[in-house]
Specification:
Length: 512
């Protein structure tokens, strides 16, 4: 059943509306807290926007923080305007996967199905509502490869330019994107190989490929220059979790590869911040359609109906497996849904392909077409509802999720905002007697929450070893430790009158 242009537009509009709802509804309150790594991105956007690369917190590409700074300048500093950047990136990626699926499979229906599955994906919804820069990777890759495949088909140079520019932007997003360069040699060589019998076409294709690579170079050049000048920053984030730091890298590789290949259908990321702990990354019916699509794509690669079909499936499969490498090449927290976020678009493209081919196969077998079509729509509706319920109610209400997103730190920030301006306020950021992880990390959450209310910090952030800095300038001072062990005893040594305030999430001490 082919859909007309008007129906396609209306269905796509409905999918984008659904994707928007899933990513924007209750955005300020779910997830229920701001994790320090998120808050650090927000605070950098407030205090030092414009950097190409931020070397703190193991190093971070600066594009995400700079877009956040733009959001803050337009909408003001708030949790909503902070997370809006991720949400919009997620929504636009749903549009991108539709265009890419339509181009890749030559079927609008397959693109629509892929877009719907991504729109309702717990995996993608979750990272679209968290302030991590990794969410930019699916967006960049979907549009870059859409224009590349369109360039392969049409030969128009503008498509190669657009693809190259967008691909180069990827180097400004997240560390795992760097491995995407491994996709390029194979797909470009295969593209040139399809033109080898026609010298004129081969020459045009060589020029187009060179232009594509040149614009990648131009777009990525600022980051490349930065890393040439600061080589330690290039590898700082990856070295601590690499399988090559293990005693037996081969065993670590096999173990990690198996875990990441199994995460789609069997056993997913166990981190509550990344996933519904250990739940497969794909909802099981979508996971089955993904496996069907994977088999179809492998068959198409070996027996394509035309050169464009061959290039599409070569790109799809190389993209999927290569973008698993950022997870496979690490040993910590495997399988890791965040590091492998670059594989999310090809995974749902394969699911969309599998769904469309399954529909075509079954539609030829059923007696009642009306009942079959109704069943298909009920199936689609059920997936949307179940994924909505899973994220907003099942996962969203778990106490493990509150802990994973450090809701206690968020509540500390709100408590500090409730205190009068004249009250002296101190936040103790480390556990007494333990090595300091850095004020810039655990203290980032209450710092950001303070700034959402006042645009500045009103509290002093100190270490547990710096409690001699506490002064009572007025009637009282309020001390809020992020880690409470031993703090009361230490305060009792220094002050005569201490009042303890117990809340659901933290303790505060009032010194008079």
């Amino acid at each position: 059943m082919a859909l007309g242009s008007k129906k396609v537009f209306l269905i796509l509009l409905a999918i984008i509306a659904l994707a928007s709802f899933m990513r924007l509804w209750q955005l300020e309150t779910l997830p229920p807290g701001i994790y320090p790594d998120e808050a650090m991105n927000a605070n950098d956007a407030i205090t030092s926007p414009g950097h190409l690369f931020y070397d703190s917190n193991n190093g971070r590409e600066g594009l995400f923080m700079n877009i956040i700074a733009l959001s803050f300048s337009v909408f003001g500093i708030s949790v909503w305007s902070f997370k809006l950047v991720s949400a919009l990136a997620g929504i636009l990626a749903v549009l991108g996967i539709y265009f890419l699926g339509k181009e890749m499979f030559k079927r609008k229906e397959a693109g629509l199905l892929a877009a719907f599955f991504l729109a309702t994906s717990f995996w993608h919804i979750n990272f679209s509502r968290i302030g991590f820069r990794a969410i930019l990777v699916p967006l960049v890759m979907s549009f870059s490869f859409y224009f590349l495949l369109k360039g392969f088909r049409t030969g128009k140079i503008l498509n190669f330019i657009a693809s190259g520019l967008i691909f180069g932007v990827g180097f400004h997003t997240y560390i795992s994107f760097r491995l995407a360069v491994l996709i390029l040699p194979a797909i470009l060589l295969l593209y040139l190989w399809t033109k080898i019998k026609d010298k004129s076409e081969l020459k045009k294709s060589l020029i187009a490929s060179a232009i594509f690579l040149a614009f990648i170079f131009v777009s990525a050049l600022p980051m490349g220059v930065y890393f040439l000048q600061n080589p330690d920053d290039f590898i700082s984030r990856a070295t601590g979790v690499s399988i090559f730091s293990q005693d037996n890298p081969v065993f670590s590789f096999i173990k990690s590869a198996g875990a990441h290949l199994a995460m789609f259908n069997l056993y997913g990321d166990g981190n509550w911040r990344h996933n519904f702990s250990h739940s497969p990354q794909l909802y099981w019916p979508v996971g089955i359609l993904f496996l069907i699509g994977l088999c179809i794509s492998l068959r198409k690669l070996l027996n394509p109906k035309d050169k464009q079909d061959f290039l599409s499936h070569a790109l799809l499969l190389s993209w999927f497996f290569i973008m698993l490498l950022p997870g496979i090449l690490t040993y910590e927290g495997i399988p890791h849904a965040l590091r492998t976020i670059g594989s999310i678009i090809p995974a749902y493209l394969l699911a969309g392909l599998g769904a469309w081919k399954t529909y075509l196969f079954l539609s030829g077998k059923v007696k009642s077409r009306t009942l079959f079509v109704l069943t298909c729509w009920l199936f689609i509706a059920a997936i949307g509802f179940i994924q909505f319920d899973k994220y907003f109610f099942d996962w969203g209400q778990k106490p493990e999720v509150e802990a994973a997103f450090t809701r206690d730190y968020t509540e500390i920030g709100r408590y500090l905002n409730s205190l009068p301006e004249e009250t002296q306020k101190y936040v103790i950021v480390n556990e007494l007697g333990s090595p300091l992880y850095g004020i810039s990390i655990p203290g980032q959450t209450p710092m950001f929450i303070e700034r959402t209310e006042y645009g500045r910090l009103r509290s002093d952030y100190i270490t547990a070893e710096e409690m001699d800095k506490i002064e009572i300038n007025g009637n009282q001072a309020v001390i809020v430790p992020l880690y409470d062990k031993g703090i009361k005893e230490e305060l009792e040594k220094r002050f005569d009158e201490i009042t303890v305030i117990n809340t659901e999430y933290f303790k505060a001490y009032i010194i008079k």
